[in-house]
Amino acid sequence: xxxxxxxxxxxxxxxxxxxxxxxxxxxxxxxxxxxxxxxxxxxxxxxxxxxxxxxxxxxxxxxxxxxxxxxxxxxxxxxxxxxxxxxxxxxxxxxxxxxxxxxxxxxxxxxxxxxxxxxxxxxxxxxxxxxxxxxxxxxxxxxxxxxxxxxxxxxxxxxxxxxxxxxxxxxxxxxxxxxxxxxxxxxxxxxxxxxxxxxxxxxxxxxxxxxxxxxxxxxxxxxxxxxxxxxxxxxxxxxxxxxxxxxxxxxxxxxxxxxxxxxxxxxxxxxxxxxxxxxxxxxxxxxxxxxxxxxxxxxxxxxxxxxxxxxxxxxxxxxxxxxxxxxxxxxxxxxxxxxxxxxxxxxxxxxxxxxxxxxxxxxxxx
Length: 366
Description:
The protein is of the alpha/beta class. It has 10 helices and 14 strands. Helix 5 packs across helix 10 (347-365) and helix 8 runs parallel beside helix 9.
């Protein structure tokens, strides 16, 4: 299981209970933490404030021990603006618990840690690595977390709400496990993060799940393929203004015929257009896929997959950004992946791909 994450949240929970005096035991629930649920829970807690605001985005963990409650935490370093304070709205009657933690997981005292229904401005202490909320599950989408008084920078897409649909190359929550490279999986190093930060967008939902494809579940019966998740890119408060999609490589690795991949990708694109008619949808081709061990053995197949993505974008009148020229090659791939045999990108690889994404978006957005 996810031992690092489990230990940290149990520690934080104990601190909250000690401060608040609440007679609840939440630690055991946090140990039961599903992979798919984690990936699906990366989204902005926002309620549709009029005008352009700087919303804060974070991560939700369902409290299995108390089904009506959830934990929602955000990382100040993952935001695009400094976070001196947070404005939050609790819409349900009852107690809401707030805590702050340093990078080593130790508790940082807050002047107040228990709140009732209402809107509050909560100062963020210096040295805060994570700030968390124990709230009712039904109100997570309505917390309206934002930075009081902050406004986004002036760009062509500032303040717009972005959702991402992808596989492990785009997932940003897998770093919580002991067996994954935290540096490669934090949101700060993801290719889409660079693009969103450059344009000062708000992150709405990152629905990227490792080992999934367009019509391929992460495990048998999981029901988390792209065709399922492509219409789960919204919250109860709003739908996305923009959608980034990087999918298909796991279908390729599963040995699917490219004509089948194209048909299923087309179905997924049509479903997104129907569910989010006002969203601007951009498809991304894959950069070089391989490891130092495999070299260029997947190059021809990845090129064929990228041709499928290009055709789907053209046939469905969607945006297209080509990442195949990001600079990663069979000769240098060892410098951009996590290990000799791993095809997943390290921080340097994600940064290189992020720059290619920004360049491609400038060509179609500016």
